[in-house]
Design goal:
DNA-binding, six-stranded parallel sheet, alpha/beta, disordered N terminus, homodimer, 11 helices
Chain lengths: 224, 224
DNA sequence: TTTCGTATACCTAGTGGTGGGTATCTGCTG
DNA sequence: CAGCAGATACCCACCACTAGGTATACGAAA
């Protein structure tokens, strides 16, 4: 694996492979700079472009091709999930790796269902990223150790307790913005009763007993 | 500034300066790896050690010296603020730059008061970090553009609205644990009325109007 | 010492969230 | 088509939180 001789020596007889092109998406420029630099030393991969928002990434995809996209989950404008879904329709053959700081099993599951090929954490090392890149180009999936542990652990639970509907998420977001039920009703053009019902259902689903639990849930699930 | 000739050419007659040693602290290994790699190309700086927690960083400081510490604000075990304060007593001459993803004016102010020399955001570029490093070794302070804008904007506001008393923080923490006022009263052996008064004062100080705002404040100030 | 901040405590009204229901309409899926 | 999930809507009782007050005691700072 660590045989980079042909790379270090330009006169090597080995045939250099064509480098896999990567689109790197993260709103933290400093991480972008860092990872790009790290990968520039790799014989197998090359960061062709970078983007600091989902929108920017999509625009790049419309006029360029990439073998792999490595993207943050927390993004401005589009969420990681929205970006993944959009990317899948623009470049169906591109491999996708999510590089996130959060180890939330629900998010990981949703992303895997959406078709990503790898999920690694920002606390992982550079080596982990390179391993993941190798795995996905070989048509295999890659999960960072912590994430696979998490999924295994979760498998025990009877499961699927949680998922909020889109409307419920919408309500929850507004609740988190300090709107009262009445205000939410006005914003969404629905009855205050309906909002109350949604809130009750959200409380039941999340297992929270009051506003505080709701907000904590919203934070934990990156809804804020 | 970009004259790196002595660096690129080892036979240059210019006298190489001694590189400033950096301690880099961040729980995201991949950022650590990336920044270290980027700085390895700099003629002026060198990442001597890295740490992924405040504790680890402090231990390193006890047996080593560093010219500059660059640290995340969100850290496991110790918060950035605690690390800064502890670092100041261990290595009083070391420069400290905070590299955070959050642009919360209250946090920035508190850190500046605690004696940091620079504050930059993860969304800033590698170049910004290098600029900051140069500034602080020249005994000057450095704030990323967004942060200084923020502080200027804040200067208009009359007050020091923010700081909660220790009792208020205690109450807030319990509120955030989903305890009702009555339960908090029982836990702290005080009257429910007193709890209510504290809550009111906290609301006033934080500018929140309800529980939601309170919890968001608690999150933003790492009280949870 | 006087003032200030902090913590303590109480009152009243009013607003809003919680928890228990029930019920209709829509669209999807087996 | 029947069944189910989701979004909509309403009712009522209860209780928790919010927003005005006022007031006392203590220790630190000016």
């Amino acid at each position: 694996m660590s045989d980079k001789s042909w790379f270090k020596n330009p006169f090597s007889r080995a045939t250099p492979m064509i480098k896999r092109s990567i689109l790197l998406v993260d709103d933290h420029r400093i991480l972008l700079d860092g990872v790009k630099n790290l990968l520039s030393e790799s014989p197998d991969f090359e960061v062709k472009d970078t983007a600091t928002s989902g929108k920017e990434a999509l625009q790049l995809m419309k006029s360029n091709e990439y073998d792999i996209m490595v993207t943050d989950y927390e993004l401005p404008e589009l969420t990681g999930l929205e970006l993944i879904r959009a990317a899948k329709s623009v470049l169906p053959d591109m491999k996708m790796i999510v590089l996130s700081m959060h180890d939330d099993p629900a998010v990981v599951k949703e992303l895997l269902r959406a078709g990503i090929h790898g999920y690694i954490l920002k606390k992982d090392t550079h080596k982990t990223l390179v391993d993941a890149l190798h795995k996905v180009v070989a048509n295999r999936r890659f999960l960072s150790d912590e994430i696979s542990d998490l999924l295994i652990q979760m498998a025990d639970e009877p499961e699927e307790k949680g998922v909020l509907t889109t409307r419920e998420v919408e309500i929850l977001r507004l609740v988190a913005k300090e709107y009262s039920s009445r205000q939410i009703a006005e914003i969404l053009f629905i009855s205050e009763r309906t909002v109350e019902t949604h809130r009750k259902n959200i409380l039941k689903k999340t297992g929270a007993t009051n506003l505080v639990g709701l907000i904590k849930y919203a934070y934990a699930n990156n809804l804020i």
